[in-house]
Write a structure and sequence with these properties.
By secondary structure, this protein is of the alpha/beta class. The protein has a domain of 207 residues: Alpha-Beta Complex (Spore Coat Polysaccharide Biosynthesis Protein SpsA, Chain A). It is built from 10 helices and 11 strands. Strands 1, 2, 3, 4, 5, 6, 9, 10 and 11 form a 9-stranded mixed beta sheet that branches. It has a two-stranded antiparallel ribbon with strand order 7-8. Strand 2, helix 2 and strand 3 form a beta-alpha-beta unit. Helix 8 packs antiparallel against helix 9. The protein starts with 7 loop residues before the first strand and ends with a helix. The mean pLDDT is 91.
Length: 312
């Protein structure tokens, strides 16, 4: 029996990004047409001031444009998902190019009801090397990291899928409330989202047959600025402290953080130390408002066992 195609939207987040869209939109339209009538291309425009909307409508008449009520960064996805009717949303940064046969490998997994997200692989802008792979969780001395293993380019489970090029089950995304505004305006929101999905009993998958070329940091013009470095550190710390178990006693944990701060100050790294201290104080102030606690050690072990299992 022929299985009905899932309805898909390639949803591109944009703000004054015509210089990127000139590369991405031709590939997105091509891949939409290749998948068939159940796939469309939508640009979420965060109130661009450079006539992006007019240019898109004139140059790519088949592309839908949804104008966000305000420039809410990637959290515009949350509002868009509420009004969309597609079964699967493929969330895309605007600083990409989609390589041929991008959609079908991502979508095929959603025949399984327990799949939440499927992430593509990415290569550098010249297409010379892979710059993403399945994400792994590493724990060392009370601190966590979640790097990509770029050496693995086979389909497998992953700790998280990149919010810049991943497909999500729209209903599940909405049910979980989308991206958590704790991580506004960006960074670690995709890690948090996928870990919540794993805790809900859903799966996140890495699919290397779907590939994007990624101009890394293109969507953030000041991607190497001190402000972005502070944001990366803040959000990484908040994700760990709000979601992952700390095996140390709470007092010894804060004592350990204090030692790190003092060490950084003595080494002259005032920016890092002050960011950690400010994030620590923010975390403490947030605690009474949080309705979701961190995973227990046994819960995390159970999630990691699932991640290490074969896909089928």
């Amino acid at each position: 029996m022929h299985r009905k195609q899932k309805s898909v939207e390639l949803v591109i987040l944009n703000y004054n990004g015509r210089k990127h869209l000139e590369f991405l939109l031709p590939s997105a339209v091509r891949e939409s047409e290749l998948y068939g009538s159940e796939c469309s291309v939508v640009v979420i425009d965060n109130l661009s001031t450079d006539q992006d909307v007019e240019w898109i409508m004139e140059t790519f008449p088949t592309v839908e444009v949804w104008i966000a009520p305000k420039n809410d960064f990637l959290f515009s996805y949350n509002e868009y998902a509420l009004q969309s009717r597609a079964e699967i949303l493929v969330l895309l940064n605007n600083d990409l190019v989609l390589l041929p046969n991008f959609v079908a490998p991502l979508v095929k997994y959603f025949v399984n009801d327990d799949v939440f997200s499927v992430g593509a692989s990415s290569m550098d802008w010249d297409g010379e090397k892979f710059i993403s792979g399945p994400a792994i969780l590493i724990h060392h001395k009370g601190s966590y990291r979640w790097p990509y293993d770029c050496t693995i380019q086979t389909g497998c489970h992953t700790f998280f899928t990149s919010g810049g090029f991943m497909a999500v089950d729209r209903i599940k995304f909405v049910r979980m409330g989308g991206f958590d505004r704790l991580f506004y305006p960006a960074y670690c929101e995709d890690v948090d989202l996928c870990f919540r999905a794993w805790r809900n009993g859903w799966r996140c998958i890495f699919e290397p047959m779907s590939i994007v070329l990624h101009r890394h940091g293109g969507s953030w013009q000041a991607s190497r600025s001190k402000g972005v470095e502070r944001l990366l550190l803040r959000n990484a710390l908040l994700f760990q402290w709000t979601s992952l178990p700390m095996n140390q006693h709470v007092l010894s944990r804060w004592y350990s953080n204090l030692k790190v701060i003092i060490g950084r100050l003595l080494s002259g790294d005032f920016e890092w130390a002050l960011t950690l201290l400010a994030t620590w104080l923010e975390y403490i102030s947030l605690q009474p408002q949080r309705t979701r606690g961190p995973a227990t050690s046994s819960e995390l072990k159970q999630v990691l066992r699932k991640i290490h299992q074969a896909l089928y």
